[in-house]
Amino acid sequence: MIYVMGKVVHTFYIWFQILKETIMASGVNTLDSIFSFLGKNQTLLTADITMMKKILVPVDFSEYSGYALEVASQIAKKHGSGIIILHMLGLSESVLAKSEEEELKEAKYYMKLAKEKIKDLTKKAHLQDVPVEAIIQNYKIFSEVNQVAQEHNCDLVVMGSHGTSGLSRFFVGSNTEKVVRTSQVPVLVIKQPHEDFNIKRIAFACDLDPENIPAYSKVVAFAELFSAKLETFYVNTSGANYMGYSDIEKKIKNFTDKLGEEVPVRIYNHYSVERGIFNFCLEHNVDLLAIPTHGRKGIAHFLAGSTAENVSNQAKLPVLTLKL
């Protein structure tokens, strides 16, 4: 067993060396163990959500990651941001356990293929005049997206998703959920193409617990960035979790007292949190839904007790998640 583990470590080392040689030979810059090629108009960017200077977009070359990249490019153009494209090769140990000669051939093949696809992406019209950096990693664990985001001081992660049946299934069990659950950086989830990503109304779904205050502050900054109207709302469910008006008023007062300012909070009555969230967004013509997440507890914790119903029309709404 020790021998096998040693072999894997040794193979990874060789594989990294091969990738570095492959990249450098093709004129691609190497930054530490992260492999990147720099697009035109590369600029020095800093991390600050109020400025939105650097956006990370994980891509798998699917149509959904294409939607995310197009939205990211629109945000970048409006706010003078740069984009980092991240592709995760995710090569298995079976590939890395071959002979060094086979390894070299495999590594060069996959690296060349990924680079060609990324270069094709950067030629898209919507990415013209946008500073772009591309990173190719052999990550297989999507939680590592957070590592890249933090190492590169990213302000926002924009990610595509194909979930179609409710907010729980929209995240839980998907790669998107894994990123959302672990990312310290706000994650914007995109499910369909947006020719004009024009955000005018943002709804922040909140359970009014004081731990939501940092997330609320980030949403306020995000809304100001887009000159969008922000509405905070609480879904009051029927049954055991139902709260009377006076109890909700106390909850709101506790939240605003801890926040240090008055915040208008709408109360929306519904039999489920999930359906209530999307019905509210539909009825109020919301352009973007913002919700807090509880890290390892995942989005399911926020929706505890709800049913993953078919709300595909509403679920096409862009969703901004913020780590508590």
Number of strands: 12
> CATH homologous superfamily name of the largest domain?
HUPs
When the domains are counted, the total is: 2
What is the helix content? Answer: 40-55%
- Count, helices: 12
Order of helices and strands: HEEEHEHHEHEHHEEHEHEHEHHE
CATH architecture label name of the largest domain: 3-Layer(aba) Sandwich
The whole-number mean of residue pLDDT values reads: 75
The description of the largest β-sheet is: 12 strands, mixed
The parts where pLDDT drops under 50 for at least 5 residues are 1-47, 165-173, 300-314
Q: Span between N and C termini?
A: 40 Å
Would you mind describing this structure in some detail?
The protein is α/β, with parallel strands linked by helices and 324 residues long. It folds into 2 domains: 159 residues, 3-Layer(aba) Sandwich (Rossmann fold), CATH 3.40.50.620; 123 residues, Rossmann fold. It has 12 helices and 12 strands. Helix 9 links the parallel strand 9 and strand 10. Helix 1 packs across helix 4. The longest helix has 24 residues. The chain is elongated, with a radius of gyration of 22 Å. The N terminus is likely disordered.
Describe the secondary-structure layout.
Elements: H1 2-25, E1 30-31, E2 34-38, E3 54-59, H2 63-79, E4 82-88, H3 93-96, H4 100-122, E5 132-137, H5 144-151, E6 156-160, H6 166-171, H7 175-182, E7 187-190, E8 201-205, H8 213-225, E9 229-237, H9 245-259, E10 265-270, H10 273-283, E11 288-293, H11 298-302, H12 312-315, E12 319-323
Parallel strand pairs: 3-4, 3-6, 4-5, 6-7, 8-9, 8-11, 9-10, 11-12
Antiparallel strand pairs: 1-2, 2-5, 7-12
Helix pairs in contact: 1-4
